[in-house]
UniProtKB/TrEMBL annotation:
SMART domains: BACK (SM00875), BTB (SM00225). PANTHER family: BTB/POZ DOMAIN-CONTAINING PROTEIN 19, BTB_POZ DOMAIN-CONTAINING PROTEIN 19. Transmembrane segments: none annotated. InterPro entries: BACK, BTB/POZ_dom, BTBD19, SKP1/BTB/POZ_sf. The gene is BTBD19. Residues 29-98 form the BTB domain. The lineage of its organism: Eukaryota, Metazoa, Chordata, Craniata, Vertebrata. This is BTB domain containing 19.
């Protein structure tokens, strides 16, 4: 039996730097993206994107030739976020900023880092244009997080702002745009006076299903028992204390 061969590992830094030099470079580029409302031209390399990311593999196809797009328009994607994704795909690392965490293209590790970044900088991130441009699929893991450093009342306001922007862009009702994500709002954490105000606002501008508000009132009425111990009553890291929380018996963990 032949002895095993010697495996030689080169340094990661020069390799990463060499690939990083190709980010948005026309050198050897065989695909061009037109990104954002400003329609910025960004150069990329089909084989690298396709082998690194299933999203781009489906978008670009598995073979080159006639019928395969050489120019791809992504008008709804923020330019800075798209460049951050490219940097991660090319170099396997990226420095995240509050404006560049909006788009993850199904990249599990990058999405996890983006969620963790927003959890740590929740209030700042909620006020960015990038938050308003999130897809419903990207917003869902944020609203499911226990680690958001923001109070539920502010999160409800942010969700309403997000839905308003989506409604204007898609020309659909606010409640219809919000439907996939508002179920993750934990309305039972709001004090009765806040819940009443939300209920009144919801009558004027529907956002949250009436049944969901009824469930929140039920948590207040029960105060104890299994019905008041599910996710809708679980506090987040940034939840401000309210008098009725002591009945929920659910300290943040």
């Amino acid at each position: 039996m032949d002895p095993p061969g010697l495996v030689v590992h080169g340094k990661a830094e020069p390799f990463s730097a060499a690939l990083g030099s190709l980010v948005n470079s026309p050198r050897y580029s065989d695909v061009r993206f037109v990104v954002g409302q400003e329609q910025q031209e960004i150069f990329a390399h089909r084989c690298l994107l396709a082998c690194r990311c299933n999203f781009f593999q489906r978008l670009l196809g598995t073979e080159s030739g006639p019928g395969v797009p050489s120019t791809v328009v992504l008008s709804t994607v923020p330019t800075e976020a798209f460049l951050a994704v490219l940097e991660f795909l090319y170099t396997n690392s990226v420095k995240l900023h509050r404006h560049s965490v909006a788009v993850t293209f199904g990249l599990g590790p990058l999405q996890e880092h983006c969620v963790a970044f927003i959890e740590a900088h929740s209030q700042e991130a909620l006020r960015t244009q990038g938050f308003l441009e999130l897809s419903a699929a990207a917003l869902l893991p944020l609203l499911r997080s226990d680690k958001l450093c923001v109070d539920e009342a502010e999160l409800v306001r942010a969700a309403r702002s997000w839905a308003r922007v989506g409604a204007a862009v898609l020309e659909r009702p606010v409640a219809e745009v919000a439907a996939p994500v508002v179920k993750e709002l934990r309305l039972a954490l709001l004090a009765p006076v806040e819940l009443s105000a939300l209920e009144e606002q919801n009558r004027q501008e529907p956002l949250i299903p009436v049944e969901q508000i009824v469930e929140a009132w039920k948590c207040h009425a029960l105060r104890r028992g299994d019905e008041a111990r599910g996710t809708p009553c679980r506090r987040r890291k940034g939840t401000l204390p309210r008098e009725h929380h002591r009945f929920l018996d659910l300290a943040f963990k």
